[in-house]
Fold:
Amino acid sequence: VILRDMVNEADGILPPGMPGYNETLEGLDYDVAKAKELIADSKYGDVSNLPPITLTVEGYGNSIPSYLGAIIQEWQQNLGVEISVRQLEPEDFLYNLKQEKDELFTLGWVADYPDPHNFLDILFYTGSENNIFEYSNPSLDALLDQAAIEQDKAVRLAMYQQAEQLVVDDAPCLPLFHGTNYILVKAYGKGYELSPLGIPDLSKVYLEQS
Amino acid sequence: LERSQIYYGDPAKLEQVVFHFLAGAPMALYETGQIDVTPVSTSYIDEVSDVTNPLHQELTVTPEISLYYIGFNTAKPPLTMLTSAVPFVTPWIRSISLR
Structure:
């Protein structure tokens, strides 16, 4: 409701349209009772024993997207977990996020090239520059190394699907949604096309004289 | 952004494109004719989706190969990864509903 059906809910990492996209991927379930049980079984035992938890977001002026507000409210209502929010200036957000991220952060990734390597390897391989989660799973790294040199396309994509399931199960991030671009272009502006990689080819744009 | 004179392909049709960063509310700038292209935010999606609204004729919707997420810093408690985090992160995930 909050996102007005503008985007596609994400269960996994790879977006629709990406080679290796897995329609049958098993995301993590919504299960409040199980969540409470797992917190009780953790070394913290109870939410009152948790250290302070802050979500780092991009922006100015104490305004956050309404869907983030809803998520924070659900954590509070369902589990009693309190989350603070800290904003970083948009201009240097990514640079500063790497240096001073809090316990949680929000971010997006738009493909640079249409291959699962661009998501799974670039974001989740141990020590990768864009592995901001500081996540490390040697089994995943080994699988990604194999996939990177596999010559058989079907086998290679199957390896990436297996890698994606590993990431989803380990949960270094909570996938929210895959994007859709909604753009308004004046009627006299012709030839404006935004690629699925988020980059418009401006060389073909022209203005129609009325 | 100006047209390149040494681009190997067909030259760009426009001489110049101007990008305005943090210049104001994008929809207000668009509706008052100060800019020619703008993304649509959730606040305006009902308005531009209405087929009787003139803005609808100017709307294009295209897929984006992307993922937006909440990341967990697995180097910091309480989300320290693998030994203790997995059973701890999961309930957070499972506590979410965007539906």
DSSP finds three helices and three strands in chain B.
